[in-house]
Please model this.
Amino acid sequence: MSQTPKTLFDKIWDAHVVKRAEGYPDALFIDRHFIHEVTSPQAFDGLRKRGIKVFNPARTTATPDHNVPTKDQHLPIKEALSRHQVETLSKNCKEFGVTLYELGHPFQGIVHIIGPELGLTQPGMTIVCGDSHTSTHGAFGNIAFGIGTSEVEQVLGTQCILQYKPKRMKIEINGKLSKGVVSKDIILYIISKISASGATGYFVEYAGDTIRNLSMEARMTVCNMSIEMGARGGLIAPDQTTFDYIKGRKFAPQGEAFDKAVEKWKELKTDEGAEYDLVLTYDAADIAPMITYGTNPGMGIKVTDRIPTLAELKDISEQTSFSKSLEYMGLEPGSQLLGKQVDYVFIGSCTNARIEDLRLVAEMVKGKKKAANVEVWVIPGSRQVEDQARKEGLDKIFEEAGFELRQPGCSACLGMNEDKIPAGKYCISTSNRNFEGRQGPKSRTFLASPLSAAAAAITGKVTDVRTF
Amino acid sequence: MSKEKFITLKSTAVPLPIENIDTDQIIPARFLKATTREGFGENLFCDWRYNNDGSPKADFVMNNPKYSGKILVAGKNFGCGSSREHAAWSIYDAHFRVVISSFFADIFKNNALNNALLPITVSEDFLKKIFDAIEKNPKTEITVDLQNQKVSLEDGSSEGFDINAYKKICLTNGYDDIDYLISLNSEIRQFDLAHS
Model:
């Protein structure tokens, strides 16, 4: 037996290879498959055309999230095409025997929020979903990545996916985070350093004591945005924080089986001396509250910094895209974002709509009122998050602040459902993408942490939470 | 299910010299509500291509009669962002068969290859050369030779490109991944039982 030290990523990957053949990509077994209404209908159609069944329905879980309205969920969905897509998911799940948490079910929510919440997401697994933010689940020490619809069909039909192994990157962060800096700032900081394509071709392992000291919710925020620097996914080796989070959850192993599982999960770590293709190291002390100014998540700055000028760009070939981006955003090169008036505040998405995010926001705005010029939407990531928020009285705090607490879904993260940011308006958003039109045609997005979003909701403008 | 077979292609090209074109630009989320794979082409690059009233924007390259062809040439990091395969479907549906860039996002690349759309990565220098050639003469033809993994311009200059051997077999024969995986059925079944 070879004694070569291995990374955690390699260990999990290699343990899931059903067949490795010369000249072929690995046939990788998938433990857990999540599906939603947008990227699955054509995959089910493919199964029908081939005349095959779902290989093992128990390994797939479905929920509608992208298209769902966040108000009046007890009523039929108004928009015909959205309704059709959600109904198609229900029909397909019924026909193929897949478990579905439909609208109104106490487990419904954003697919990447409900997986961990229900204990379906566990260390050491391979997890895929037809959604790029599948990387979220990597926070539990597993290989989780987004796939296309043809691949959804592969997984439904064969429980495997054909994949080449990506390269391995380690991103290590050590030190204590400053006041007002949270996990969203960590990941926005990293992406601003390495760009929106800096990790393409890699699978990232996040390490270092800063990461170790994060809660599970905060770790999920970091892993969630791995794709925004191009990485296939990002993972964090499991530890006591992970085990404590999983314990007692609905589909987690229970009792003795849980203790046995933990013994196995404890072995899930990178061996001493294992090699990565690239290692990046950052100091937590250098990270400040971050905000994006442009139209990709790599265009981020410390909230107190100026937007770069054309002359300050590293690469001359970026000038055209940079100018186009700032023109879209209605911003001047070299100007400051601090103090810039915003129109909307969106607190939600698979990046930052877990209970801890809502608690952070509530704690900050308790007893305060939103600025008159802003509309504030708080969209819980799941029914369970919503119920918990109400139980803790967070709904009252939001109501008093003039925030609108709605029902769970992807909401204004992607401008697909009814929640859209109007053309030309500025939205400070806890979501993951600031692409042109992402939150609605011609909408303008500033990505930031829940703390920064909460502060902006109160002041009505881009605010440094450290002086709030 | 067999797809269209790809061997060689000689065509004029449509230039889009913008970097980081994400899949939300290729096909905005509001158009992802269909439950079939067809018909996405008309909304390809929708927000760049049409005005609010649906009329074509004169300054967008796809609306400029000077440019046409089955090859799309774009700046680096093409296809970043969302995993939506609809991006590859919409490009294919708009009659493109090749996308050339100096860098592709991973998921888009996989999706394209799964849909008989060939993503070709060329050097930054060669990409600039292609853009220059099209600017000089929009009717210039680019030749893509998948067998020999080579892109050539009319001036005789060319560059080789990499493609995975397995994916090359799939493209040239019109195979898809699931055919291969289905052939592993009993091995997968055993694996599943051992890991439940």
